[in-house]
Structures are given as C-alpha cells and as structure tokens.
Amino acid sequence: MAVAFLLYVVAEVAAIWAVGSAVGVLGTIALLIGGAMLGSWLARREGVKAARAFVESARLGRNGQAEVTDGMLVALGGVLIMVPGFVSDLLGLLLLLPPTRAIARKSWLRRAEKRAVMYANRARGPVMVVDSEVVSEDKSQRPHPVIEGTIVEG
Predict the structure, then answer these.
(1) Are residues 54 and 30 part of one domain?
(2) Residue 49 vs residues 14, 30, 55, 79, 93: alpha-carbon distances, Å
(3) What percentage of the chain has pLDDT greater than the value 90?
(4) pLDDT tens for residues 53-111?
C-alpha cells in the first residue's frame, strides 16, 4: 500500500511538473482550480442523478445496489477531483462520467461479491448455490423473487 501511494505521489508531481513547464505556474494553478470547480459541479449533478435513481428504485421495490454503488463512486470521484493534482482529477473525472462509472461499478460489484462469498459463513466453510433458478416472480405475494437451488457445503 505504501508503494502504491509513493507511486501516486511521484505521478502527481511529474504531471504537475510537466503541465507547469508547458503552461507556466499561473496556468497550472488556474487549471487546478478550474478543474476542481468543474469537477465539483459535475459531482453535484451526478450525485443528484444517483440519489434520484435510488429513490425511484426504492419506490418500485427493486434492488438498489447499482444506484447505491453509483452514489458511492460519484462521491469518491468528487473527493478525487478536490484533491490537488492532475492524476487525481483524471481518475475522479472517470468516476463521474456515466460510461466509465458503469465499468467501475461492474468491477466493484464483482469484487464485492467474490469477497462476500469468500468471507460468508467462515465457521461452517464455503457455501455455493449450484443450478439456481427463479421459482416465483409473483410481485403480489413477495417483494423479491424466490430462488431455489442445490446448496453445496464444503
């Protein structure tokens, strides 16, 4: 972790040095401030969109994990844009734009699912559902579909 942070700091200094030598000190400062202002506006706009999507999902009784993850990624993108530096601004901007945020969301949810399966029920060992299928999607009886499958314990 310390090595990754050190590499990040070196990349930020190199990026600021390169931009500073190209546009000068005042231009670099103006770009950093302008990027923070533009990023905060974009983060606010995308955050409101994510919150509205979550409320709509909750109102319809759907699973809101994508909307919650979008809100978390928008917040992280906003924080990264507020951190001075061009590398963090670029990473924050990628998290604020919907197409790249969708890629990050899929990756994040896949990683979270793997970790949840890995750490779930440690006392009795790993559990895996095999051959699962949706048995009932009748919304009048249950808010969530019933899933049946063969449970394999190891």
Answers:
(1) yes
(2) 35, 29, 10, 17, 16
(3) 42
(4) 999 988 888 888 888 888 999 999 999 988 889 999 999 999 999 899 999 999 988 88
Q: What is the pLDDT of residue 129?
A: 53
- In this structure, are 64 and 128 located in the same domain? no
Give strand pairing partners of 128. Answer: 152
Please check whether residue 70 is in contact with residue 105, taking contact to mean a CB–CB distance below 8 angstroms. yes
Is the domain of 70 the same as that of 94? yes
Cα separation values, 91 from 14, 75, 81, 98, 147, Å: 16, 12, 8, 13, 38
27 in the same domain as 13:
yes
Q: Are residues 52 and 113 in the same domain?
A: yes
Residues 6+ apart with CB under 8 A from 40: 78, 81, 82
Q: Are 50 and 67 in contact (CB under 8 A)?
A: yes
Q: Which residues pair with 134 in a beta bridge?
A: 147
- Please calculate the CA angle 119-120-124 and round it to the nearest 5 degrees: 105
For residue 7, is pLDDT > 80? yes
How far apart are alpha carbons 77 and 75 in whole angstroms? 5
